[in-house]
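Problem 12. The chain below contains 78 residues. Write out its predicted structure in token notation.
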Amino acid sequence: MLEGSAKGKKLKITQVRSVVDYPERQKRTIKALGLGRPNWWVIQPDTPQIRGMITAVRHLVKVEPIDDQPELQSGDNM
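Solution.
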């Protein structure tokens, strides 16, 4: 179903720069990712479509991979 990505993988995408003075196409891409202002962040699935949008605005965002499954820390199972 999700070709090109591991099941459960997600990306935390943070907008680090404003879209002022950038082309309209990049502004629309930022909006399609769910962002809108610097320091806003969203979690999106790791799909080829999302990766393509990130590539188009890579100078405006920071991307961190995250695992969808929570990790147990010591003391969490009490």
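Discussion. The domain at 9-67 is CATH 3.30.1390.20 (Ribosomal Protein L30; Chain: A,). Students who got a different answer should revisit the alignment rule from Section 12.3.
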